[in-house]
TrEMBL record:
Keywords: Hydrolase, Signal. The gene is pyrC_3. InterPro entries: Amidohydro-rel, Metal-dep_hydrolase_composite, Metal_Hydrolase, Metallo-dep_Hydrolase, OTAase-like. It is an enzyme of class 3 (hydrolase). One of its GO terms (molecular function) is dihydroorotase activity. Pfam families: Amidohydro_1. Residues 1-19 form the signal peptide. This is Dihydroorotase. Residues 81-437 form the Amidohydrolase-related domain.
Length: 446
């Protein structure tokens, strides 16, 4: 008993001692970005020259000529293009290792990998992400408290998966819990939550919110990589999906679902799901329903170019089918004016996270540079705002350059409204990265 009290006291001491340097970093500062061209959603092209003044964590003013306030840091943009920080609505910073490799690690190691992934994303110009499966709440908190470097995070917590679903990585000879089975590392580490029936899926959702999820993720269809859940399968019943939607709505937020096929997407939409992840195999009828329900399409391209070394023939066949589906999906989404967001579904280690911006190249097959920029800024911000009462960054706008918005901006060497491929090489083409009014990268000469 005595030792546990002293541990608690020691922890309290730690909290007090780190509080002061953190507060010092949050002091009011001003940054004047001088002589920039700029773009924000609603503009057909970049325009300038313009001055943008940042005060604290907000954009204070935008005008052709602003006199720098006393003590302001002045960045001469030399006509480069300032755009809102990018938002990725489907990322897996926690999904760093294969289910097998998880057996030989612990959450502390995973957190270090996740932090490296988060930092790589920020250096890609991504200032906000939605984490799509896993215990990212601690990493989010560490970033918000300046203990680590990375984007703003909207965590989903453990993805709710059915027995045998996309998130069930147990060995085949591990029985269900009712028959003496045991949870594997994917579950014990909080990446997935296996549940069947209304009561269990609701418990999974409530547990995610208990841990700080801002929305809940459900895996409602088979997957490309799945060995035991082919991509044509619907996972969960409409009733189970609706039960999770009800829990999310009780928490003032929404549900996002991994879903490829018509059957699973339609069930989700009828159940009240607001964010469809992937969606590659949807028909015209389903896309119409997406539009009717006002659901968002959080779709990807780059991830489907990745034929993983361990893929067998059926996995390769599934990969090919979802790649073929992409063309129809994006064409239909445009036809029915469904809101598409930028998302990469990037996972693994920082080396792979460096590939996430390939998304900006591949989407040009269907979209103009300005459309692609809108997907990565306002469209994505609208989706994240559905987290409503659970929104961790509620007070100011995200994904726009306007007075009062969060000062999340990146300076591009060139004009991404004409050449959006510039964003695919962030190390070369991003001169300045600012998140929450703080400079994380500035390679411009003083
Ligand atoms: Zn994913």
């Amino acid at each position: 008993m005595k030792s546990s009290i002293s541990l608690f006291t020691a922890l309290l001491g730690t909290t007090v001692s780190i509080a002061s340097p953190l507060m010092a970093q949050q002091e009011q500062t001003s940054i004047l970005i001088d002589n920039a061209s700029y773009w924000t959603a609603g503009m057909n092209a970049a325009s300038g020259p313009m001055d943008i003044l940042i005060e604290g964590n907000a954009i204070k003013s935008i005008a052709p000529e602003i006199t720098p306030p006393e003590g302001a840091e002045v960045i001469d943009a030399k006509g480069k293009t300032l755009i809102p920080g990018l938002i990725d609505t489907h990322v897996h910073i926690m999904d760093t290792l294969s289910p097998n490799a998880l057996k030989n690690t612990d959450l502390f190691y995973l957190a270090f990998l996740a932090e490296q992934n988060a930092e790589r994303l920020l250096m890609n110009g991504v200032t906000t992400i939605r984490e799509a499966a896993g215990p990212s709440m601690g990493v989010k908190r560490a970033i918000d408290e300046h203990l680590a470097t990375g984007p703003r995070i909207y965590p989903s917590g453990a993805a709710i998966t059915q027995t045998g679903g996309h998130g069930d990585f147990r060995n085949l000879d591990n029985p269900t819990p009712q028959k003496g089975g045991y949870a594997d590392e994917t579950e014990t580490m909080g990446l997935a939550y296996i549940a069947d029936g209304k009561a269990e899926v609701m418990r999974g959702a409530r547990d995610a919110f208990r841990k700080g999820a801002t929305q809940v993720k459900m895996l409602v269809s088979g997957s490309v990589s799945g060995l035991h859940d082919p991509v044509d399968v619907q996972e969960f019943t409409e009733e189970e999906i609706h039960a999770v939607v009800e829990v999310a709505e009780n928490f003032g937020t929404y549900v996002m679902v991994h879903a490829y096929n018509d059957r699973s997407i339609q069930a989700s939409l009828r159940a009240g799901v607001k964010s469809i992840e992937h969606g590659n195999l949807m028909s015209e009828e389903t896309m119409k329903l997406m539009a009717d329900k006002g659901a968002f399409l959080s779709a990807q391209t780059y991830t489907f170019t990745q034929k993983l070394p361990y893929f067998n023939d059926s996995q390769i066949e599934q990969l090919n089918s979802v790649n073929v589906g992409l063309d129809q999906m994006f064409t239909l989404a445009k036809k029915y004016n469904v809101t598409i967001t930028h998302s990469s579904d990037i996972y693994g280690t920082p080396e792979n996270f460096a590939n996430a911006p390939q998304e900006f190249i591949l989407r040009q097959k269907w979209f103009t540079p300005v459309e692609i920029l809108e997907q990565a800024t306002t469209n994505a911000a609208q989706l994240l705002a559905l987290s409503g009462a659970r929104n961790p960054y509620p007070d100011q706008a995200l994904g726009v350059i306007e007075v009062g918005a969060f000062a999340d901006v990146i300076l591009v060497d060139g004009d991404p409204t004409k050449n959006v491929s510039l964003l695919a090489k962030p190390d070369d083409n991003l001169s300045v990265i600012i998140k929450n009014g703080e400079i994380y990268k500035n390679v411009l000469p003083d």
